[in-house]
Amino acid sequence: MADLAIEVNGMRFKNPFLLASGPPGTNGKVIKRSFSLGWGGIVCKTISLDNSKVVNAAPRYGKLHAHGHADEVIGFQNIELISDRPFETWLDELADCKREYPDHMLIASVMEEYRREAWHEIIERTQATGIDGFELNLSCPHGLPERKMGAAMGQDPKIVEEVCGWAKEVAKVPVWAKMTPNITDPAVPAAAAIRGGADGISAINTILCIIGVNLDTMRPMPTVEGYSEPGGYSGQAVRPIALRHVMQIARACPNATVSGMGGIESAEDAVQFLLLGASTVQVCTGAMLHGYEMIEGLCNDLSTFMDRRGIKSVREMVGKSLPYFDTHAGLVARQADAKREHAGRTNRDAQTWQGDIARETKTLFTD
Ligand SMILES: Cc1cc2nc3c(=O)[nH]c(=O)nc-3n(C[C@H](O)[C@H](O)[C@H](O)COP(=O)(O)O)c2cc1C
C-alpha cells in the first residue's frame, strides 16, 4: 500500500481524506468512530458560543436525481444551520476525542458574530481542548447571513481579513478559512484571508440553490409549513465548480495550503482536487449518502492509483495540473503555434520531394 500520509501546516494526516464540517462530525461519539475507521482527519460540525440562537427547521434536506436514476443522488440541498449543541458539551467532547485519539487530526470549525472579543473567546476556549487546528466558517449560505455571520462575512474581503486576523491573534494552532462559492472571484476573499494571517483555505462551502418545486403542491422544496428558502447545494453536481474554485485559489495564493471539497465520492474525484492544488480533501455529502465506511475504498483506490502511476507520496500530486491553465487568448496562440510547428514538420524533405519537383518547388515559395 502506498504511503498516503501528508503533513500540512505542521499537522500530520494519516491520509488526505477528512470528513467535512456537517452531520458526519456532529458529536464526539461519531468523531471517534470515524477515526477508528481510518479517516485522516475530521472537521467537526461548526460550533458557536451561544447555541440558543441556533434553531433548525425540518425537513431540511432535498435531493436531485438524474432523470431515470431515482436510486442515485447527484445533487443535495440543505437548509441546516451550524451545531445547535451547547458549547460546553462540545468542549468536553473535543477534549475526550483528543485524549482517546491523540494522533488523529481534529479540526474545530468555529463561527461567531462580527466582534473581536467573541472570536477571541471561541478560539481560546476551543484550543484549550487540545484540537489540532481551526477552520473558520466564513461561508454558511443560509440562516446565518441574516445574523451577519457565515457567508455574509465571507463575501466581504475586508471582514474576511479582519476576522482571520482576530483568530490569528490568539490561535496557537493552524487556522484555515472556509470560503463561500457564492461570489464572483474566489481568489479575492481567499487572498484577503491569507493577508489576515490564515494558514490555509478550505473550499468550497455549499452553493446557494433551490433544489426544485413540488408540481403537486406548487411549493418550493424543502417545504417547511408550505414555505422554503434558498439553501446550500452539495454533492457530485457541484464538483466541477468546486474544482474551478480550488484551482483559482491555489493559483492566486501559492503560499497557502488548500483543503478542497465539493462532490468528492471516490479516490478519482479526490485526486483531481489534489492535482489542482489541494493537499487535503474533505467529504460531507458523500459520507452522508454512503456511510463512514467509504474511507476504506477511498484509501485503497488512492493507493492503487499511486502504485499504478509510480507516485510515491500524496505531496507529489499536489498542484501538478495547475501549470496547464491559460487564458482563452493563450489557448488560441498555442493552437496557432502548434499549427505552424505541424506545418514545419510536414515540410521536411522526406515528405516534400515525392518526384513532381516543379509543383513541389512552388509550395516552398512565399507569395
Ligand atoms: C447537511 C449539511 C450540513 C453542513 N453543515 C456545515 C457546517 O456546519 N459548517 C460548514 O462549514 N459546512 C457545512 N456544510 C458544508 C460541507 O462541509 C461542504 O463544504 C459542502 O457540503 C461541499 O462538500 P460535499 O459535496 O462533500 O458535501 C454542510 C453540508 C451539508 C450537506
Descriptive report:
The structure is a single chain. This protein is an alpha/beta fold. The chain folds into two domains: 6-321, Aldolase class I (TIM Barrel), CATH 3.20.20.70; 328-362. It is built from 14 helices and 16 strands. Strands 3-4-7-8-9-10-15-16 form an eight-stranded parallel β-barrel, surrounded by eight helices. It has a four-stranded antiparallel beta sheet with strand order 5-6-14-11, with no helix packed on it. It is globular and about 90 Å long. The termini are far apart. The model has no long low-confidence stretch (mean pLDDT 96). The site of flavin mononucleotide has 27 residues, from strand 6 and helix 9.
Q: How are the SSEs placed, and which strands pair?
A:
Elements: E1 6-8, E2 11-13, E3 17-19, H1 28-37, E4 41-43, E5 61-65, E6 73-78, H2 87-100, E7 105-110, H3 116-127, E8 133-137, H4 151-154, H5 157-170, E9 175-178, H6 187-195, E10 200-203, E11 207-209, E12 212-214, E13 219-221, E14 231-234, H7 239-252, E15 257-261, H8 267-275, E16 280-283, H9 285-290, H10 294-309, H11 314-317, H12 328-346, H13 349-352, H14 357-362
Parallel strand pairs: 3-4, 3-16, 4-7, 7-8, 8-9, 9-10, 10-15, 15-16
Antiparallel strand pairs: 1-2, 5-6, 6-14, 11-14, 12-13
